Amino acid sequence: MTTTYWRSLEERDAEGARPDGSAVEFAANPGRRPSRRDFLRLAGFGAAGAVGAGCSRAPVRHAIPHVAQAPDTVPGRGYSYATVCPGCPAACGLLVTSRDGRPITIAGMPDHPLSAGGVCAVGQASVLGVYDNRRFRGPLLGGRPQPWDSIDRELAARLETIRQSGGAVRVLTPTVHSPTLRREIAAFLATFGDGAHIEYDTVSASAALDAHEATHGIRALPRYLFERADVIVGFDADFLGTWISPSEFTAGWARRRSPRPERPPLWHAQIESHVSVTGGKADRRVTLAPDDIAALAFDVAEIVEQGGGGTGLAAELGARLLAARERAIVISGVQDRDVQHCCNRINIALGSYGSTLDISRSSRQRRGNDAAVERLLQEAAGGRIAALLVWRANPMFDLPGADRLAGVPLIVSFAERPDETSAAAGAICPDHHALERSRRLLDEGGRAERQARAQRRARHDRGHPGHPHQPSLPRSAARRSAHHRSRSAIVFSKPKAPGA
Amino acid sequence: MNAPGQRITTIVLLTAIAFTASLLVARARAVSLPGNHQGYEPAQPISYSHRLHAGDLQLACLYCHSNAEKGRYAGVPSPSVCMNCHRFVTAPLGAVRAEEEQAAIAGRPARAIVSPELRKLYDALGLDETLRPVPGRTAGSVVWTRVHNLADYVSFDHRAHVGAGVTCQSCHGPVETMERVRQVSSLGMGWCVNCHRDAARTGIEGRAVRPSIDCSTCHH
Question: Which of B42, B71, B149 sits opposite A75 (nearest CB)?
Answer without folding.
Answer: B71
